[in-house]
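Re: the request from the purification team.
They wanted to know what the chain is likely to look like in 3D before they choose a buffer screen. I agreed to run a prediction and write the result into the notebook, where they can find it.
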Amino acid sequence: MAVDAALLAKFYPLDKLGAECIEQLAKEAEQTEVGKGSVLFRAGDTDDHTLYVAAGVVRGDYPDGKSKSTDGSSLQGRYALGDLQPRRFTATVESLTATLIRLDRRYAEKVMIFDQLTKSPNFRHYAEDPGGNRWVFRLLHNRALHKMPTGAVERLFQRLEEVIAIKDQIIVREGDEADYFYVLKEGSAQVSKQIDGRDSVVAYLVRGDTFGEDALLTKSVRNATVSMKTDGKLMRLSTKDFAEILTPPVVDWVNPAKASELSKAGAQVLDVRTPEEFDEAAIKGALNISLLNLRDRIDELDRTRPVIVYCNTGERSAAAAFILGKVGFEAYALQGGLAAMMKQR
């Protein structure tokens, strides 16, 4: 159920946000009705959402036997329900029903940081016109940036540089060296690749979409050409700034022991090396899709299961995990590459 922005604005610290940011969070928030006895979370749980009790009563039971209740109609109900991680108590609905508001914690924190930045007279990336900040909210919602610490958001906006682009302008060319990471601020673009000696359009980009990160992560040449379909504006981040701000947090790494546990629990194992490397040595049961072809063959993977990605050194697997995370997969890159996993087995 959609959430009314006016309702969301009653909660702390959301009540301090500007109207545009509140409306954006309201679009992403989820409102649910749950019955008596429903367990919302348990002590020791770690999760990615913030809960508010809009109506009803929720009891919190601590491991030491203490308990407390949160009533949505009280002042205490304005605060998030036990938002510390890991959760310190088990939350159970005590009233006949309860109305809950759920927010993605990481996204909400990033929006709050952006709201604070816009209040600074020196902030360069805020647009007064309606819809002018749509690219910002879409960028902050990008799954590839989901794990970026909130402290890095300010640095990201400080380092982003705006450039003007015109229709048919080639921004990056397949085979060229990587230099920048891009965000499409205004306008639209298309992605094309050389297939059987011909340029073939493989994707379209709109405001808030990102491109150019693959080559930066793998320290390789561009794997596609991006050209403007319309006049527009781009925000770009240099190779150095990308490495400092975005690269560290965007990929989840697992060691061989954890990878083995995930595999036994049903995770897919993906080898992103070339077919020749795969034929020489590979992990038993792994699917081989080279990094170069991953975007074209991504539908061969099961989106309902985690993916463990490996290569020889970790650079290609990091790029692949980034690509998969960007389109909604739970993806992990294997530390130490093939040799480490083979030794573990």
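For the purification team: Residues 36 and 112 are 33 Å apart (CA to CA).
Please add any questions underneath this entry.
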